[in-house]
Design goal:
There is one protein chain. The protein has 338 residues and is of the alpha/beta class. It contains 12 helices and 12 strands. The strands form 2 sheets. Strands 11-10-8-9-7-6-12 form a 7-stranded antiparallel β-sheet, sandwiched between helices. The chain has a 5-stranded parallel β-sheet with strand order 3-2-1-4-5, with helices on both faces. Helix 4 crosses helix 5. The chain starts with 6 loop residues before the first strand and ends with a strand. Bound molecules: iron/sulfur cluster.
Length: 338
Amino acid sequence: MKSSQTTALALFSGGLDSTLASRVVTSQGIKVVAVKFVTPFFGYELLAKKDDYIRKIKETASIELILKDVTIPYLEMLKDPAHGYGRNFNPCIDCKIFLLKEAKKMMQEFNASFLITGEVVGQRPMSQRRDTLRTIERESGCENILVRPLCAKNLQPTQAELNGLIDREQLLDFSGRNRKPQMQLAERFDITEYPSPAGGCILTDPILSLRIRNYYEEHEKIVPEDVLLLLLGRQFKFPSGGWLVVGRNKQENNRLESQKQPGDWMLRPDNFPGPTVILRYSQNDKELQLAASILVRYSKKAISVQGKFKILAEKDGKVISLDTVATQDNNYLSWQKK
Ligand code: SF4
């Protein structure tokens, strides 16, 4: 049994591999603190239910977890990742380098002797090739402190192994895309609940990542509140500068309400069922009227009948009532159809 002084800091994605990597190390008697980094593109929704999530991971995977929001520096990194983007707007290599650098900064706070990840050599075409794994550890400054427990036996021994902090013999030799060894190991550890691999990063989503890419191309200053808004609803950009987002269901309507910022108009139907909409960066009343018309257009009930509809529009505590009809006007642009 290792001394209780030895602590490892694990990069935890919530997926099976990082769960197993943590368990392989704790099974050697080493304390593991797992950190789940969150950004608007992965894990962000967990911030609202942080305690429940941490408790769930403790119960289902026996892992001590902390969540850390790294939105601001991550959005900066996304502007110009040195290794470029993958198929969509996913900067996987720079993302891994970035997260390792962040984890390295936290080592002292947790008295951690080394870092661990759930990476498996050869599992992913771009970011888990052998040479890429080396690039990632070198460029993150983690060359001597990064252990990959699931494939360690396929890699050169790390300092942690050479110094006897962790027993290489008990580490694993997984490689490639076959998930069977992971499934078997999960069974051994009695882990039954885990998400499917590679799911969950919005930067790999073809539609949402295109919105984000367009936003990055059009803005020098990246505003986190804008990025969060980009991920919701139907999106329209008015030629005169306003940006309209229309909720597509009750859940999105609620999320839109929570995204409202000073200076935003929030419009809601008054006398009929329909979506919530946010109008941002609007400088003129015409856009407000157009926003109201679009709201009506996306109310199934309203467009099935003729007449005027009342809409409540609120901005910075001021509420006004608008009478409107559904728009027949296509003089607005979807964010994606430039
Ligand atoms: S898929 Fe997303 S979270 Fe995963 S490495 Fe790539 S950019 Fe990072």
